[in-house]
Write a structure and sequence with these properties.
Layout: H1 2-6, H2 12-26, H3 35-51, H4 61-78, H5 84-102, H6 106-122, H7 130-150, H8 159-172, H9 174-183, E1 209-210, H10 213-217, E2 223-229, E3 240-249, E4 253-256, E5 273-279, E6 292-293, E7 300-302, E8 308-310, E9 318-325, H11 335-341, H12 350-360, H13 366-379, E10 383-384, H14 395-403, E11 405-406, H15 408-421, E12 426-433, E13 436-437, E14 444-447, E15 451-459, E16 463-467, H16 470-473, H17 476-479, H18 503-527, H19 531-540, H20 549-576, H21 580-594, H22 605-615, H23 620-635, H24 641-653
Parallel strand pairs: 10-11
Antiparallel strand pairs: 1-4, 2-5, 2-14, 3-4, 3-12, 5-9, 6-9, 7-8, 12-15, 13-14, 15-16
């Protein structure tokens, strides 16, 4: 009997629906497959429904014999072998198209449906967003509906009840899925973070400065990272997210010291902040912790300059737990740092040297020299702009004395040059400053428009001390983020001053915060749910003793119990649910009684038919049709769901008057 059902031919509608669902399952993959592979899949679909649109006439065997090696050769030639995800998905997609060409029986439908499931699962190797998850759920419901229809004895498709049953099955699987997700032993990272080969090019902050690089980055509103504090975040003016430390310069370019490989820990001189930083993909290894991170967790490195980096490039969203302090205990200034902190380019002009000499003055301490330079930037007519004029041979000299229009990199680099000329060791720090609080999630959002550069000077008894010369020219920059827009050359920067927006703007802003909060929590609880987070959750649940194989056993038992409970509840609901035929018949009797017909409890269908036709002769045709359908279904064999639906529709439309 089972073999006969498997060999039963498909209906035309089942064939077309299978093709539609396979196309919908494959569409999100088309953006990262080679155009010829995507075109081949589309060509196979078109071939099937253009020349062989019915299941009784599939593509001829000789054509399949020719197409199969051609399809394999195409995948082997065009798919990237080093990118395991792309190669496997390309092969799966092309084989799904080939399978559709030969579909004619229900056995073929089962294979095509399960290929559709596999294609949907592989979407998570490329996308891990809530929207894609919802999309996978919808298409999986459709594929499950196809399996339900394929197991019916007839070829008719009562889609409303089928989709309802498929949706119930999908929803009923959620409790077991959640238990397996929470309890099953976790890898150190999610499956989709494994190195399957290949990385896409992702733009992030560079580890050097060439005049204009940060100004271009600061015009982007893309999220760089998010930070969730375990407690109150620091004040806005103290939110400096440290990136790379730049020492050496030729007057235009500033670069890191790549020779420093020593790993260190720092001692806190103020109350530490504990937080989690969720980095967006940057294609670079750098992290941007709050000011001074105290120690590097596993897989991260912290050097004596305070630079924090990962052992590999961050090519996917990832969360790190860190602890930082706004002040650290000063360490002695080494000989190498002293040399680098006083290094000067050969392009220093006489008037730049004269300005530094003036700042040093007679008998001024290093702190007083720093304050004098700060006053110079504040009192002279400097302009903070995203589009500074082009600086030719000597950027520092041209900026200080000619244009006086620049962005944070201009102020930080020129300040450091002046400090070095005055005999004070100094260096440039690039990273981010500020961050916007998401009121829904309570976390900070730091965008590329918050990219910033500042300076650090070495002061006796204080060590490396932050000085931000930009705040002398545009103090709003420290409290507010830049408004991302197109600026004319030399035009002053405008800031988000947080004025109360209009209703529509406020609604749009709240929707933006909701989306941002959803993305972060989705990553935190789903995509980034690693072994550490699992243990933290189990500890809160009082299950911290479960380790290793114990978790696996607990996951299996819990899933079985959850599935059994859902099954028993479904059986109980089915037992309590009234017969649909009886429901329709009772509703019909109720309508007749409202029209004035008296019906006794012992009245049978035949007697009811005679009484109703006599009482409502103008509705005799409708009454006879309803009663004949009911008796055929009630006393016939194997009533079909579509016939029951037709009876319900007739009863619903019936009116006595």
């Amino acid at each position: 009997m089972k073999d006969l059902l498997l060999q039963k031919p498909l209906s035309r509608s089942l064939l077309w629906l299978t093709g539609l669902l396979l196309v919908l399952a494959t569409v999100p993959h088309l953006w990262h497959l080679h155009i010829f592979i995507s075109g081949s899949f589309a060509g196979l679909i078109i071939l099937r429904f253009l020349f062989w649109p019915t299941p009784d006439r599939p593509a001829p065997g000789w054509l399949l014999f020719l197409l199969l090696p051609a399809a394999l050769a195409l995948v082997l030639y065009l798919a990237n072998w080093t990118e395991g995800r792309q190669f496997g998905v390309a092969l799966l997609v092309v084989m799904a198209g080939m399978k559709l060409l030969e579909m004619k029986t229900r056995r073929d439908l089962y294979i095509a449906v399960f290929m559709g499931y596999f294609i949907l699962v592989t979407l998570f190797l490329f996308y891990q967003t809530p929207l894609v998850t919802f999309y996978v759920f919808l298409i999986s419901t459709g594929l499950t509906g196809l399996l339900i229809v394929a197991n019916l004895t007839g070829n008719t498709l009562p889609w409303k009840s089928v989709l309802k049953r498929a949706l119930v099955m999908m929803v009923a699987s959620i409790p077991a899925m959640i238990l397996l997700f929470v309890l099953f032993p976790r890898l150190d990272g999610p499956l989709w973070s494994l190195n399957l080969g290949g990385n896409s090019g992702i733009t992030g902050m560079s580890d050097n400065i060439h005049m204009g690089s940060i100004s271009n980055l600061s015009q982007s509103d893309e999220v760089a990272f998010r930070v969730r504090f375990h407690g109150e975040p620091p004040p806005a003016a103290q939110r400096y997210w440290r990136g790379m430390v730049l020492w050496q310069t030729d007057g235009r370019d500033w670069v890191r010291d790549e020779s420093e490989k020593q790993l260190v820990r720092f001692g806190a001189a103020s109350q530490p902040y504990d937080y989690e930083i969720t980095m967006e993909a940057s294609g670079q290894p750098w992290l941007f912790p709050l000011d001074h991170v105290l120690a590097a967790p596993a897989n991260l490195s912290l050097n004596p300059y305070g630079e924090l980096s990962s052992s590999k490039d961050i090519d996917a969203r990832h969360t790190f737990r860190l602890s930082s302090s706004l002040r650290i205990r000063p360490a002695p200034l080494g000989k190498r740092q002293l040399q680098m902190g006083l290094q000067l380019p050969r392009t220093i002009t006489g008037r730049t040297r004269q300005l530094a000499k003036k700042l040093r003055g007679q008998g001024r301490s290093d702190e007083q020299v720093v304050q004098a330079a700060f006053r110079f930037f504040r009192e002279e007519p400097f302009v903070y702009t995203l589009q500074p004029p082009l600086l030719r041979s000597n950027p520092v000299d041209g900026f200080l004395f000619n244009t006086r229009k620049g962005f944070c990199e201009h102020y930080a680099t020129s300040f450091v040059i002046l400090m070095r000329l005055a005999g004070i060791p100094a260096r440039v720090i690039i990273g981010y400053q500020g961050g916007e609080l998401n009121p829904l999630g309570g976390h900070l959002v730091i965008r590329q428009s918050d990219a910033h550069a500042w300076a650090e000077v070495w002061l006796a008894n204080r060590g490396w001390t932050r000085v931000d010369p930009t705040s002398a020219v545009a103090p709003e920059r420290i409290e507010h983020s830049i408004t991302p827009t197109r600026y004319a050359e030399g035009a002053p920067v405008t800031f988000n001053l947080k004025n109360p927006p209009a209703f529509v703007a406020r609604l749009a802003r709240n929707l933006k915060w909701f989306r941002d909060n959803l993305q972060l929590n989705w990553h935190y609880w789903v995509v980034g749910f690693n072994s550490d987070r699992q243990q933290s959750l189990l500890q809160k649940m009082g299950l911290s003793r479960l380790q290793g194989y114990q978790l696996g056993v607990a996951a299996a038992i819990s899933a079985i119990l959850a599935g059994s409970l859902v099954f028993l509840l479904g059986m109980r609901r089915r037992a309590q649910r009234q017969d649909p035929l009886r429901q329709a018949y009772s509703k019909f009797q109720h309508k007749l009684e409202k029209g004035g017909l008296e019906i006794q409890p012992a009245t049978g269908p035949q007697d009811l038919l005679k009484m109703a036709v006599t009482r409502f002769p103008q509705k005799s045709a409708d009454i006879q049709a309803i009663m004949q359908q009911y008796m055929a279904l009630r006393y016939g064999r194997h009533p079909r769901e579509d016939m029951i639906s037709a009876l319900k529709k007739c009863v619903r439309k019936f009116r006595c008057g």
